[in-house]
Design brief:
heterodimer, A: alpha/beta, abc type-2 transporter like fold, 2 domains, five-stranded mixed β-sheet, 16 helices, 5 strands, B: alpha/beta, Rossmann fold, Alpha-Beta Plaits, six-stranded mixed β-sheet, four-stranded antiparallel β-sheet
Chain lengths: 396, 306
């Protein structure tokens, strides 16, 4: 029994890199998961960006803008309506709060207030949460300022009395609440539910990374069983071999993604039809990026044990920070920025562009994501090629 | 056909091949004989352009093959030491794949695959997965996969390791047949019987160098030894003690001592006396004619299996 124990430990310590990765992996993953999901419960520490657009431009609305800016959980910026809508559409800001023309007059006349929240289709949940903060701050402020106005030239004391009188009347209070209701909508709303897009795209990319890393592992298998050496004896070059493997990875990944999206369409009602070309383009570049990732990992490691540990660590980390597991807007701000370094982020955002933001194939915002994914694939593949050629020379 | 001039190869601080030279004529079977770690596989890897030599040159069929050259690779068939096959493929799928990467296709490929499978005696089992084959069957397919493109030169790196006697004999027959048909063959082995049986010319390698080369007769002459006396003792003899006493090359492996002799009848008495006086009980004595084993012992002072 102890001989077996001794042998097992010796085997374990033979591949020190795999051992170190294996020991470090849970620690790193716990840290990443805690930072990401812990961030969800620390909403007070996280500022949400909000654009404010004051089209009424009165002293009344200016005071309300200042009031919004004073909310600690909001990082506010003001701009024109067109710019604001573009920024939200681009996904740079989650939403814009608009004071439409005639807001002040409506407030003074106790008419329904023309204010509105327009949000990024993919971040409507975040905007609903923000709306609660706005309501708490703005309702009392608007009510107070309206009362002051109704009291004419009376001082603050008489206004307060007037407001107190107003509050006595339940009917009038409910009428005021009705008038102060904030209209909210998404800038573009497609036929697909955001949650479904998140679930399909997030899971698809994560699973693709796992399966393509396994395909990359076949390179190591070939090295171990001698077939790689035999391939290198043939007229094929090292680049021919890796290119062949890369193409098979891309093909497999493309088919896998098509199957995943088709399944989601048939079973869960994901609407693909109007955007099929954009979906296929995004599938192709995602497949290329993920294949590059798989080949790169397989070229970096020396054994299949190392590959298994390193790939689990890298894929789970990328999936957390990139938004495969939970929408990235729920994570702390700095982690959302780090998430840009993952394939998951760009791919999921690309699918959001198609399904939720309803962007056209030629829209630069969408094409930018396609380009970034292509660059991921190109850089990782190039590095994999270089490492592979270097490994080949040291094979014998 | 093949000209190797003063090639060297190092891995880090270890020099595996230390300036070897040899030439092989068209249609010749050249054996590289030596113990494990002698540098045979490194030499084969350089000949097959897996990596270039650090110094020196290799010319194959008149073309420089010191660096990767796809044209030269096309005329080489290489049987690696490992059984380099896809175990999840059938023999038929393997053979078609390895043929296709050398550019053989269509009817030509299937005809050749069929011919080779019949030749290695596995045509009837071609649809079985390779992982279900015995070691000997895998070795035969391993050889067949190197022949699909009808190479001019066949390099075999210890092709009979771990093979049963029946498959080994079949492999010998295959190699002899190919050689008779005019194929140039380079065969590495650490079994002297194989080199003696198959090769026209033999290079004896040890510690990265070719210590002797020529035909079997030339090597025997070179070693100037006519006999080899093998004595089995009741205990392990002291090699140095016997060597000093008998004044000849002696190799001890467990309880067996191998002694070189130019006149076995004359030397036999002194061998028996020396062993008995030293307390080594003799259980068997065998007198053999000089062979590659005796040549290797003479040249290196050690046995091939060391």
């Amino acid at each position: 029994m102890f001989k077996i124990l001794q042998k097992e430990l010796r085997t374990l310590f033979k591949d020190r890199r795999a051992l170190i990765l294996g020991l470090l992996m849970p620690i790193i993953l716990i840290s990443i998961f805690s930072l990401a999901f812990g961030g969800m419960n620390k909403g007070n520490n996280k500022k949400t960006q909000l654009l404010v657009c004051d089209e009424d431009k009165t002293e009344f609305t200016k005071k309300l803008v200042v009031a919004i800016d004073s909310i600690k959980t909001i990082d506010m910026a003001t701009t024109t309506l067109d710019t604001a809508l573009d920024l939200v559409k681009n996904g740079k800001y989650p939403g814009v709060f608009i004071f439409h023309k005639g807001f002040t007059d409506s407030a003074h006349a106790s008419k329904p207030l023309p204010w509105e929240m327009k949000s990024d289709a993919t971040r409507s949940i975040e905007m609903e949460m923000m709306q609660q903060y706005l309501v708490q701050t703005l309702y009392s402020k608007v009510a107070l300022m309206s009362m002051q106005n109704q009291a004419g030239n009376a001082d603050d004391l008489s206004a307060a009395i007037a407001m107190q009188q107003m509050k006595k009347s339940m009917d009038e209070r409910s009428k005021m609440q009705e008038n102060m209701k904030i209209q909210s909508s998404s800038i573009a709303t497609g036929p697909n539910n955001d949650g479904l897009v998140q679930a399909v795209a997030g899971t698809a990319v994560m699973m693709l990374l796992f399966s393509l890393t396994a395909m990359g592992g076949r390179l190591l298998e070939e090295k171990e069983n001698g077939t790689l050496k035999r391939l290198l004896y043939s007229p094929l070059t090292a680049s021919d071999i890796l290119m062949g493997k890369m193409l098979s990875s891309i093909l497999f990944a493309t088919v896998q993604l098509i199957i995943m999206f088709s399944f989601s369409s048939m079973v869960f009602g994901l609407v693909l039809a109007p955007k099929i070309v954009a979906v296929l383009l995004l599938i192709l570049v995602t497949a290329f990026a993920c294949s590059g990732f798989g080949m790169f990992l397989a070229s970096v490691v020396k054994s299949r044990d190392q590959l298994q540990t390193l790939s689990t660590l890298a894929i789970l980390s990328m999936s957390v920070i990139g938004g495969s597991m939970v929408p990235s807007f729920l994570m702390p701000g700095w982690m959302q920025i780090v998430g840009h370094a993952s394939i998951n982020y760009w791919s999921i955002q690309g699918f959001y562009d198609i399904f939720s933001r309803q962007l056209a194939l030629t829209d630069f915002i969408f094409l930018k994501k396609v380009l970034v994914l292509f660059l991921f694939g190109a850089v990782l593949s190039t590095m994999a090629f270089r490492l592979f050629r270097k490994n080949v020379t040291s094979m014998a | 056909m093949i000209e190797v001039k003063d090639i060297t190869k190092s891995y880090g601080k270890t020099q595996a091949v230390k300036g070897i030279s040899f030439s092989i004529k068209d249609g010749e079977c050249f054996g590289l004989l030596g113990p494990n770690g002698a540098g045979k596989s490194s030499t084969i890897n350089m000949l097959s352009m897996l990596f270039p030599p650090d110094t020196g040159s290799i010319t194959i069929n008149g073309t420089d093959a010191s660096n990767v050259n796809a044209e030269v690779k096309q005329i080489l068939g290489i049987v690696p030491q490992e059984i380099a096959l896809y175990e999840k493929f059938t023999a038929w799928e393997n053979i078609l794949f390895w043929g296709s990467i050398y550019g053989v296709s269509g009817k030509q490929l299937t005809n050749k695959a069929e011919e080779l499978l019949k030749w290695v005696g596995l045509f009837d089992r071609r649809k079985e997965l390779v992982k279900e084959y015995s070691g000997g069957m895998k070795r035969r397919i391993n050889i067949a996969c190197a022949l699909l493109h009808s190479p001019m030169v066949l390099l075999l790196d210890e092709p009979t390791v771990g093979v049963d006697p029946q498959s080994r004999n079949l492999i010998f027959e295959l190699i002899q047949h190919l050689n008779k048909e005019g194929m140039t063959i380079i065969y590495t082995t650490h079994y002297m019987e194989e080199a003696e049986k198959l090769c026209d010319k033999i290079g004896i390698m040890d510690n990265g160098k070719i210590i002797a080369q020529g035909t079997l007769d030339e090597l025997k002459t070179l070693s100037a030894v006519s006999d080899m006396i093998v004595v089995d003792c009741t205990q392990t003899p002291d090699e140095k003690f016997l060597s000093d006493k008998l004044k000849t090359n002696v190799a001890v492996a467990e309880n067996t001592v191998t002694i070189l002799s130019n006149d076995s009848k004359k030397d036999l008495t002194s061998i028996v006396t020396t062993c008995t006086d030293a307390g080594y009980g003799i259980t068997r004595i065998d007198i053999q004619k000089a062979n590659l084993e005796s040549v290797f012992l003479k040249m290196t002072g050690k046995q091939l299996r060391d």
